[in-house]
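Duplicate of earlier report; Spondin domain-containing protein input re-posted below.
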Amino acid sequence: MKRTDLTFKPSLVAIVLATTLLSACGDDNDNMPPVESTPPAAVMQTFTVTVTNLTANQPLSPVFLAAHNAETYLWKVGQPASVAIEMIAEGGDASGLEALENLTASVTGTNPILPGMSETLTLSVEESAVANISLASMLGNTNDGFTGVNSYNIAGMEVDAPIMMRRMAYDAGTEVNSEAKGTIPGPADEGEGFNEQRDDINFVHGHPGVISQYDGLADSVLMPSHRFDNPVVAIKIVRTE
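Output:
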């Protein structure tokens, strides 16, 4: 008996059909919307900044604290103060600083810091944006005295490795240091705060100090206790995470 071959070769029609089906499947995949990947969560760094008042009788206005890029400075010695610095130096008003551009994050304290007392502020910043930190506060019983930290680099700080520093008093140069009644916003006078008119040398410099009525300035409302030496604040910066 002749052997029958039971192996069939695929027909041309079957090959064409299979090719068409595969092509159709490929078209379906090409037309499907791309799968969106979830961006990685931002890595945050948290810093605590403790400000201690070292003066005998100069309350500090609520502290303004900010993180920002390395090109930002709140003030420059020998140059005119910005309106934002004038506002805090003459009246303890931080709203002008809070509105500045290039701030990555900022916070302002809620209460004055009395002599010998401290306040701790917390600032959280994305790791990719960490660069420099600044703070500012008014010496309340002065015409336009202030203190602070001006664009200090905190990039690369290790966790729980505190940085300690002390800072001097500056004069905004926007209001003459008359110490006269009605010109000082602190508790020694409760007088005027910010005034947009400038009647002093109009550049930031080291504060010359307080004279007081007992040291030859007859119209002064200040007492010897309001005088101060540098430094006027101690500052502790800690990266907590």
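Helices lie at 12-31, 83-91, 95-98.

Merging into the original ticket.
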